[in-house]
Amino acid sequence: MAAAFRVMLRMEIKPGMGGEFERVWSEIGGSVTSHPANLGQWLSRSDEEGVYYIVSDWVDEPKFREFETSERHLEHRQKLHPYRSGGSMTTMHVVAHLPGSAEAGAAHTDWAVAR
User: Fold this and answer.
1) First-to-last CA distance in the chain?
2) Residue 3 pLDDT
3) From residue 87, how far is each of 12, 50, 59, 115 by CA, in Å?
4) Rounded to whole angstroms, how far apart are CA atoms 70 and 72?
5) Total Cβ atoms within 10 A of residue 50
6) Which pLDDT score is estimated for 108?
């Protein structure tokens, strides 16, 4: 995945709306992940109250920018907008990826993996 283009959104969610935001994000996420250039998307809840991070990987920046300006993306954003009170977007190019032992399916012999 060394050539991936990564987008990270920091989303500030209105108080008391986190659970509903998570539900809606899960329901509509296919509008992003079904795009042929999307490599996957992750939603993470921060320890900071009401803050979420969405990370989305793309085959390259031009394909992401094409999606970003599409009607499909506009509809997706409109469905999440009622929950949002602020946020920001950061983009980056992934230059390297080192898979961990758990990802590769084999735990390192010096470490015990709790299950």
Assistant:
1) 28
2) 78
3) 5, 11, 24, 35
4) 5
5) 18
6) 54
From 31, 32, 17, select the one nearest 84 (Cα to Cα): 17
Regions of the chain short of the pLDDT cut 50: 1
DSSP state letters, the chain = -TT-EEEEEEEEEPTT-HHHHHHHHHHHTHHHHTSTTEEEEEEEE-SSTTEEEEEEEES-HHHHHHHHTSHHHHHHHHHHGGGEEEEEEEEEE-------HHHHT---TTS----
Q: Give the start-to-end residue ranges of the domains of the chain.
A: 5-97
Spatial distance between the Cα atoms of 48 and 79, rounded to a whole number of angstroms? 23
Q: How far apart are CA 55 and CA 30, in angstroms?
A: 14
The pLDDT of residue 25 is 97
* 62 contacts: CB under 8 Å, gap ≥ 6: none
**CATH number for the domain formed by residue range(s) 5-97:** 3.30.70.100
Q: Residue 112: what pLDDT? A: 59
